[in-house]
Amino acid sequence: MNVQVEASPGIESPKRTAILDAATDLFVEQGYGAVSMDAIARAANVSKATLYAHFASKDALFATIINEACRARMLPDDFAAGMALDPCGDVRPSLVALGRRLLGFLLEPRSLAIHRVVIAEGARFPELGRAFFENGPVKTCAALGAWLARQHEAGRLTIGDPLVAADHLIGMLKPGLFLRATLGIGDPPTQAEIDATVEHAVSAFLRAYGPGCVQGR
Amino acid sequence: MNVQVEASPGIESPKRTAILDAATDLFVEQGYGAVSMDAIARAANVSKATLYAHFASKDALFATIINEACRARMLPDDFAAGMALDPCGDVRPSLVALGRRLLGFLLEPRSLAIHRVVIAEGARFPELGRAFFENGPVKTCAALGAWLARQHEAGRLTIGDPLVAADHLIGMLKPGLFLRATLGIGDPPTQAEIDATVEHAVSAFLRAYGPGCVQGR
DNA sequence: GTCTATAGAAGGATAGAC
DNA sequence: GTCTATCCTTCTATAGAC
Q1: Is the pLDDT of residue B196 over 60?
Q2: Residue A69 needs a FRET pair 20 to 30 A away by CA distance; which of B7, B10, B111, B191 works?
């Protein structure tokens, strides 16, 4: 099932926008299989025929939407903004701020929903998995790695391989809360839980990568 | 959609076993939506009526199977065995061995498939998410935490909170390879990649939690 | 472009014979 | 318990009028 993503999303029309908006919410919230074209048409106040006038098939509509969602919503702006700043003295406050932004973003309902959908339909739409991976984790890791490398230059951290270090920081931020939230178990994480997780992760990260750490063991 | 898991799986019958075997492979491999009762009946060499004689509905069959898969296949036996041994001198080789077993297990096709299915259908079957979480991550983390705590007692590591430390080790093992494999991007990880990831994770973990580390910063 | 109405296929579930 | 044959619903996709 090799469905091409809509090639020319250029033409704007009210109906088309309504379709995209409605379908995005439905698909992201409920997944591919659970959403019917009828439901999309109803939610968009459009007939099914109009739907098919704009999109060749359900597959094409889904692929277009999820692809766009991956591209548009992956890297939080204020995270990128944080990356632009270098700390004056101690790196710890910067790391805590970055960790809080990143974990908070990952735990947002919309982020979790996209993550779920991409994993769920990865077998049917391999190109979506790649779009998600390239626009999300890869970009985030690269940005964080570059920032870490700059701190190494400045003598504020001791980073061997920036990408590995970025993976380790992100990896220590995620467990517990993220998996629980992805599976929808228990109550949503509180800000206090997020803060505690970030504190633990940053502390461990600084012990492993702080100034004066010896990498070669 | 609150589907009860089969209450009495006690009675063994050849047909029933054939159904369970066939359906397990299909569901785990392709997910709930993509598998039809027709396909299951065909794969099990059984009529659809027989299917419904043994299981009340597709939902019930699915829930029974995934629940069982979560319970049976979660914690690798040789991982548990490794937990029983305490290292003689340096902990590093033990950590590397444990990390290799755990990461290798997580990357097995069957493990990845279960992980995908549980995340995909988590909204429709909340009890499956819980079954997976309790039998998989929670048990693994508890076992690893207990082992880490023992190493702390023996002065081989410096562990503040064992569960947090276990989360951090597992978190540093997973990124990169695990997400890529879950999304099915690129080639499956090679043993060399696995080994390198484990080495990096264990090195960072030992810098953060090795003997003589000061926790309170 | 947009609608109403419908064709055509697939899937979940069951009736009734053995 | 097991089978064959079938019902009924739902879904994707399209035909034809405006």
Answers
A1: yes
A2: B111
